[in-house]
Amino acid sequence: MLRIRQLQKKKQEEAEAAQMAQSHGISPVATNRVNSAHIRLQKDITELDLPRSISVQFPNPADISYFEITIKPESGYYQHGRFRFAVSVNENFPIDPPKIKCLQRIYHPNIDLEGNICLNILREDWSPALNLNSVIIGLNFLFLEPNPTDPLNKTAANVLKKTPEVFRSNVLNSMRGHYVDDGYYDNVLR
Amino acid sequence: MKVQVLEWNAVASWHWDLKVDDSGVADELCGICRVPFDGTCPSCKYPGTDCPLILGDGCTHNFHLHCILKWLEQDTSKGLCPMCRQVFVYKRIKNMGTSEELHNLQVLIEGHKAMRERENEENEFDSFEDDVRMTD
Amino acid sequence: MLSSELISSIIPTPNLSDINAGELENDISIIINWIKLFPQPIAEPTLRVKSAVKSVLKDESSQFQFTKLLNNSINENFQLEGFHMDGMNICPDELQGADLATVISRVINTKRFYDNLLISLNLNLSTSCLNLYKKNINKNFKLLIGEEVFLAKIYTYFDENFLRLNSFHDFNIILMLQFFEAIEMKNELNQILINILIKKIKFYINENFKLAWSVPILHTLNNFIEHQIYSNIDFVLKSLHLSIDMNDLIKIGYNELISLRINEIYSIIIDYPKSEISLVELNRCLNFQNSDNFDPNIEFYQRNKLVENFSDNVNKNLLNAGINTINLIKTYIKIIKSFLILDPKGVLLDKVIRPVRKYLKTRDDIINKLVLGLLNKEPELVELSRELQNTEKSFKLFKNFDELNDLNWVPDPIDALPDFKKFKINDIIQSLISIFDSKEIFIVEFTKLFGNKMINSEEDLSVILKMINLLKLRFGKNEFFNLDIMVKDFINSRSNRGMVDSTNLNCLILSHLYWSDIIETPSFTLHPSLLLTFQAYNEMYKRENFNRFLKIIPNFGTVKLSLEGKSYNVPLDKASVILMFHDNNEPVSVASISETLNMSEYFTNKILEFWVSEGILLKITPQLYASNE
């Protein structure tokens, strides 16, 4: 892997040099990278084809690199909840995956209390061949089929594995904004 | 009657000769940047010679050379094709890409290969340890 | 009708003859007796009369009472029919018919009579009583002369003699002016004189300066005002102990000229640039400030009126379907240039140009015409291409569009006001292009136009490159990436020519994605012999460019043919059709050609007819053609 790192370092140095040049008003080339992410992102956004239960909002229409999605699962443990996520896409998209965080404190085996999400296609299984649509559909799937084998919230995962009925009532309580196992959660039913 | 063509000023368009996949249709878009192959990758200005393609050899997937380079520079790519997740191998074709670019590509692919082999060895070692433990 | 005569005949007003009782009886009767002489020629009052007057007027209240009675007596006298004085009858009706000199001399005599009356009586009336007396007697004079008719006469007199006033001798002008002063009508005279001089100036301006837009006139106007107006009026006014400021007169003149020009404004601007000097002078008139009497309201009114009048005309004459787009653009340019002369700050321009901009946007061919104009392909709009060549201006364009990307951007000059926005409208190209929210549509149009020129080899590459560079200066250099690719295709193809020397085929090789606005779906297939040539070329191309191949675009390009000893340069469809007759003396059917070339029969027929008209083919039947040998 050493040689890859060397290459990356070289690239990074080049990028820094370009940035320096740009800040001195010399080279316009560096803007291309921003554009490339932007062009691909635009395509992905126009190609979004989501079920009714998912909606997308752009708080600042001039900046498509940040937006929010709301998922209202139509079945499963999380039915009736409204789960909000922030999606941000960096300049290296689609080489880098989009970054998604849950904006609420929720009780979910694959989402920790800080809103970090454990979804393979957002991490180790990301590929530029995937698009925003596939990522959002994957996220939606987490609410239909929470996955206890790859947990971020281990307590919740254990409850789901051992006593699905307790898990169900924990989810309901958490969605109402009640305490579950000494931890408080955001009301997501409003 | 004799009709003799003295001179012909023609207009033609060039196209990449892309492999057709199993369904008989050639993918027209680069799987990474989603721009047609006959156009440029996002960081190039001129299509064609300046922005060559790379044809997958193990799989049927093609990419802009510059796009696949960017992908393979990621550790997380593990040297796999972004489309089918097979180990990415490319066809060596003359005049496709500068020697520096092709060299970089080769370095990346070999780096990933070395990484995979080391992981496999570790896994084998782990399983060897497991075996040892089981025999205890 | 209720007249003062009628009222006084019923209720006689008290007058001096009514003071005949009480302690003053004696004195008053003495005065009455003396007054009874009146209006006979005035004799020196006796000492007794004088002392009687003195005793009557001892205190303020009796003075006041006396004055009132005196006024009533005077009024009665004026009202008497056949009022006599100096043996002359001056009845008001008669006076109104008389000439001005007679009226004036009689009034002056009457006035003198009353003055003498007061003097001889030595009436030391208090100021307020004196004013009461004067006011009353002047009222009577005005009544006597019939004020309105008289003033009209005066007006006519001055009007007719205005230019001779300075050297006027056969009428005693001094006397007349004294008369006005005497009967306290100085203000009225002043008003008359001002009305006359305005009329004179207005007449002069309309007579001499209407439609005179191409020559400077202000100097002439100033001369006229100074030598024809000022010198005359100044003499009159000085006689009245009044004066007028030369600059006020000039302001009057300029205001009249402004009114004329406001009425003409639309035609003046259409006449631009011939009318340029009139716009420069109009600007001077609008900004002329006479020292003291400057009235910002007038300026505001004039500027408003100018905009209003021009906009009305624009609506009526310009913004309609009958005006072609080129003329619209030309007028648009004229409006910008001329209004910036009128008002360099651009405030007026901003107002008048808005509706035109809105309308221009609705014209389907506006972009095309602008693009042609900029590229000097439209002789009527040569001005646009001249503007484009003016690269000095271009640096500050698109500041609002491109500020971040434009490396040539420089800040506003430091002396610019904080709200400096002039650059938005003072540049014609910028102004026209900014009709649209984005410059994108222009870029697309330029790209199409140059693409067509290259694909049809209509323009020299160096000319195209020069134009593109100029456009980049205006629109930003990153905007033409598509065109840059097209140009590169063109240049690469040229250098390819040497590559294949075994054939007589030159090929322009396009990166098709970037030419999609130009290349169309082919409407036919090439003749097999041409295809063969192309395939050979394609093979060579593939050998040079691994993994790339070529597709012919049959709708473009030309073939040079030798036919019966003549040479023809024709498009590929015509060449393909005639090649069907190569080495073939048999008739060929339209259907078979149409089938071989995948060409519609209608189109095939048209091409066959072309070759018939050239004498190359013979039409045997409507379905059969053969070579004409």
Automatic annotation (TrEMBL), chain A:
InterPro entries recorded: UBC, UBQ-conjugating_AS, UBQ-conjugating_enzyme/RWD
Known pathway: Protein modification; protein neddylation
Alphabetized UniProt keyword annotations: ATP-binding, Nucleotide-binding, Transferase, Ubl conjugation pathway
Residues at the catalytic site: 118 (glycyl thioester intermediate)
UniProt catalytic activity: [E1 NEDD8-activating enzyme]-S-[NEDD8 protein]-yl-L-cysteine + [E2 NEDD8-conjugating enzyme]-L-cysteine = [E1 NEDD8-activating enzyme]-L-cysteine + [E2 NEDD8-conjugating enzyme]-S-[NEDD8-protein]-yl-L-cysteine
PROSITE patterns xref list: UBC_1, UBC_2
A Pfam family of this chain: UQ_con
SUPFAM superfamilies membership: UBC-like
Domain UBC core: 36-180
Enzyme Commission number(s) of this protein: 2.3.2.34
GO molecular function list: ATP binding; NEDD8 conjugating enzyme activity
Family that this chain belongs to: Belongs to the ubiquitin-conjugating enzyme family.
Name this polypeptide is given: NEDD8-conjugating enzyme UBC12
Lineage: Eukaryota, Fungi, Dikarya, Ascomycota, Saccharomycotina
UniProtKB/TrEMBL annotation, chain B:
Keyword Ion transport: no
Domain RING-type: 41-85
Keyword Zinc: yes
GO molecular-function term, one example from the UniProt record: ubiquitin protein ligase activity
Stored Gene3D superfamilies: Zinc/RING finger domain, C3HC4 (zinc finger) (3.30.40.10)
GO BP terms, alphabetized: anaphase-promoting complex-dependent catabolic process; cell division
This protein's UniProt keywords: Cell cycle, Cell division, Metal-binding, Mitosis, Ubl conjugation pathway, Zinc, Zinc-finger
GO CC aspect terms: anaphase-promoting complex
UniProt name for this protein: Anaphase-promoting complex subunit 11
TrEMBL record, chain C:
GO aspect biological process, one term: metaphase/anaphase transition of mitotic cell cycle
SUPFAM superfamilies membership: Cullin homology domain
Pfam families: TPR_ANAPC2
Signal sequence, start to end: none
InterPro entries assigned: ANAPC2, Cullin_homology, Cullin_homology_sf, TPR_ANAPC2
Domain Cullin family profile: 429-612
GO cellular component terms, A-Z: anaphase-promoting complex
Domain of life of the source: Eukaryota
UniProt cross-references to PANTHER family, sorted A to Z: ANAPHASE-PROMOTING COMPLEX SUBUNIT 2
Family from the record: Belongs to the cullin family.
Protein name: Cullin family profile domain-containing protein
